[in-house]
Amino acid sequence: MITSSGDKLTVAQSALYGWIKDYMREYQHSPSIRQMMQAMGLKSPAPIQSRLKHLQEKGYISWQEGKARTLQIIDEVLEGVPIMGSVAAGGLIDTYSDVQENLDISEVLKKKDIFALSVNGDSMIDAFIAHGDMVLMEPILDSYSLRNGMIVSALVPGLGTTLKYFFKKGRQISLEAANPAYEPILIDQDQVSIQGKLLAVWRKM
Question: Which has fewest Cβ within 10 Å: 9, 37, 58, 158?
Answer without folding.
Answer: 158
